[in-house]
Amino acid sequence: AVESTLFSGALRFIAGLSKVTGSGIREATTAAVVLRCKRPLPEPKFVVLPHSSTMSLSLRSLIVPPSTTTLRARTALQWSLKFTTATPFAEKVTSQGLRVSREEVETVTVESREITSSPQNQLIASDSSEEIQGVINNNGFAVLREPEKIRTPSNLSTRSEYEKIKDDKSNEDRFKLRNGREVFEEKAYLISIERKGDQEDLFGIEESLKELAQLADTAGLLVVGSTSQKLATPNPRTYIGSGKVAEIKNAIHALDVETVIFDDELSAGQLRNLEKAFGGDVRVCDRTALILDIFNQRAVTHEAALQVALAQMEYQLPRLTKMWSHLERQAGGRVKGMGEKQIEVDKRILRTQIGALKKELESVRKHRKQYRSRRCSVPVPVVSLVGYTNAGKSTLLNKLTGANVLAEDRLFATLDPTTRRVQTKNGKEFLLTDTVGFIQKLPTTLVAAFRATLEEISESSLLVHVVDISHPLAQQQIDAVEKVLSELDVASIPKLMVWNKVDKVGYPHQVKMETEQREDVICVSALNGDGLQEFCDAVNAKLKDSMVWVEAFVPFEKGELLNTIHQVGMVEGTEYKENGTLVRAHVPLALARQLTPMRQLCKS
Ligand SMILES: Nc1nc2c(ncn2[C@@H]2O[C@H](COP(=O)(O)OP(=O)(O)OP(=O)(O)O)[C@@H](O)[C@H]2O)c(=O)[nH]1
Ligand SMILES: [Mg+2]
């Protein structure tokens, strides 16, 4: 097993792509890397790419297996790679290459599916590494190739087979546009486990499975089947029982399944054993990996991308053994112990990368904090929207502020907090922040990674818990959100609950009547604007509760302070005096502090 320079050329090409996407092109780029071999390949091959480049839907960013369809022909391997803005790995593409012996490789070509040729992203094929580097430095694409091999294919049958795969229209159909990005639609099979006597799970097995299907759909997978099992204790080797493994194996082979997804987090050993048991090219992953993949697809800002990358690496660290077991198998056991050492090396690399990422995240956050504290000097109260994913938080923000946050009927549409100013009819103002949605069984690695973003919630004056009241599991979702909130140190912040999507329920009047009887619950439809005035009134009333009563004498030269009081506070009365104004009002604590000297003045 030697690293192929051919392939490192392809990797450089990819590095070039990522450089382009990193410097302006917002959306991901899909590139197909095609590797053609002289003879049928004996085993599925894996290519190990640096962490930050991920195959679209590979669900495992360190290991990029060739897509299964092309594998069947066994003469050509194709990778579909996706790059996002945060793929600064050009310099990291070095030692880890494809483990295919050099003699086997005939050609490596890279086809960009989206980027058209222009001086900015020029594509060249060359056998000179200097030339390639030059192009890459100019934000172009380049692939290292060995010309004679490309010109004279030694095996014609291989060539026609390769052509067949390339022209395979059924493959073409499986590239779907998701969220503005092109993804390969893999066939997925879902497995959910119910632990007997487990009180922890708020959701029933069927509901949890339905949610997993929604997650899979969001990730761009095509769910072709599912099953569930009740278990007293999970099998330490395979999580599910051996009978169930056999049953699933039959089902997935009949359905041509490419990816099997478990609804619970699996250990590295379980993943490996299951993959072995299912055989073939089937990949096994768990709910956490799926959510990580969605987050990875959706991260837009630098900070979100960093957070997701960090969560992915922390998820991978204990699971690293897996990829090397494949490589060992390929090596045919000839190089004993090589895999073991490699794991250590890899873990070290990964730990270093994790450290570097954490540092970078810290500096990004520091920056944001400074920005926020600048914002705080104008003490407009901050109201945070929290809630289960898909509850309608972004729709509500958009409706109230005219913002243009992506809102769609998929899970985790929003990853980054967006803040906008809301002006209510009576001239009052508050800032409304949209946040990442919650979900049951939220992976701990993700909670940790997003903690900083969520911690901003703890600095707001009011939490608005948005609930999709039309959802059959609304109560369970409320409980799941409250569970996450209880871990976030926000107990002291006043809360307001909003029952959203009231237009969708069967008996809206009944729901409205119920909210009228309940304190702290407002009923709205963010979609058609129903109840939004009541919502703003309720927010203002709530904010008033959290304000401080002041009587202050504001001299004329501080006129702008008076404006601020009117803007963010609740003024009860004003009296114009000779050299200033006496104000009686409820104001936010921060403003009350600013007014302290004038309060003293008023008393004297
Ligand atoms: N019928 C109806 N649909 C709504 C309402 N509010 C939101 N939706 C729909 O619900 C879906 C999810 O809305 P989003 O605003 O993206 O939900 P979100 O809470 O921001 O979700 P995440 O960002 O994924 O956490 C979208 O398809 C909206 O059009 C409503 O009041 N009535
Ligand atoms: Mg949203």
From TrEMBL:
PROSITE patterns: G_HFLX (PS51705)
InterPro entries in UniProt: G_HFLX_dom (IPR030394), GTP-bd (IPR006073), GTP-bd_M (IPR032305), GTPase_HflX (IPR016496), GTPase_HflX_N (IPR025121), GTPase_HflX_N_sf (IPR042108), HflX_C (IPR045498), P-loop_NTPase (IPR027417)
CDD domains per UniProt: HflX (cd01878)
Top-rank lineage group of the source organism: Eukaryota
Keywords, alphabetical: GTP-binding, Magnesium, Metal-binding, Nucleotide-binding, Signal
Stretches assigned to coiled coil: none
GO-annotated molecular function: GTP binding; metal ion binding; ribosome binding
Matches recorded under Gene3D superfamilies: 6.10.250.2860, GTPase HflX, N-terminal domain, P-loop containing nucleotide triphosphate hydrolases
Ranges where the Hflx-type G domain occurs: 381-547
SUPFAM superfamilies: P-loop containing nucleoside triphosphate hydrolases
One of the record's GO cellular component terms: cytoplasm
Family matches, as HAMAP family: GTPase_HflX (MF_00900)
NCBIfam families linked to this entry: GTP_HflX, small_GTP
Designated name of the protein: Hflx-type G domain-containing protein
Organism for this UniProt entry: Protea cynaroides
